[in-house]
Amino acid sequence: MKLTTLTIASAIALTAAVPAFAQTTSAKAGAELTVRTDPTIAAPITGVLALNEEVTIEGCLEDVSWCKVTAADAEGWASGQYLYVEDNANAVPLVDMAGNPEELVIITQTEEGVSQGDQNGAAVATATVGALTAFALGGPVGAIVASGIAGTAVGAAAVEPTPDTLTYVAANPVDTVYLDGEVVVGAIVPAEITTFEVPQPEYRYLNVNNLPVLVDAETGTIVQIIR
C-alpha cells in the first residue's frame, strides 16, 4: 500500500447514496475498535473505541478501508470496515459508500514523500499469512454492525475467561501473526493458524496484529481481546 502526504480531495456530501446523511461528519464504531497511528494493521495503537462510540470522521482512504477519526479518548486511524452511520433504525456501513468518492471525505495520495504508515505496511506485506473473516451473517460489516446496534458483540465469550487464563496468557507471550483486517470480537482466525492452549479448554489464544486474543477452541472466533 502506498501512503504519502495526505490531502482532502472532496467535502463530505452523502446525498447521492443516503440523502439523510448530507454533510455528516460523524459515525459510530460497530465493534470495540482499535485506533492506530497509521492506516495499517502494524501501526502502533493510540486508543480503543467502545462499541457504538461516536467518532468524528476527518477523512478516509479512497476504498474506505481506513478512516482518520477523532473520539473522546482516541485519535488516529480506524478500520472503515467497522464504522457505520445511522438512518433511523438502520445502520449504513461506510464501506457501502466506497464506490462513489463524492460521498465521503477522501484522503488521496500525493508524490511528496512516504509516511511511516508506508514503512509499516511494507513490513507487514511480506509477513501477512491470511485474513480475518466475519462472524455469522451479512458479511464483515453487516454482522458486526447488526450486533453493535443490538448492544451485544457478536462472538463474545459465553463464559468469562478466568483470572488463571488471563494470567497464563500474560505470562506466556507468543509471536504475533499478521492477518489482513482489524482485530475485533467476532472475527474468525483462519483454521490453518496455530493457536495455543490455556487453562480453560473451551478457549485457545494467539497474538494477532500485536494484540493477544482468546478464541473459541472449536470455531476460531475471537471472543476477547486482551489489552
UniProtKB/TrEMBL annotation:
Residues 1-22 form the signal peptide. The keyword Mitochondrion does not apply. Pfam families: DUF1236, SH3_3. Keywords: Signal. Residues 33-83 form the SH3b domain. This is SH3 domain-containing protein.
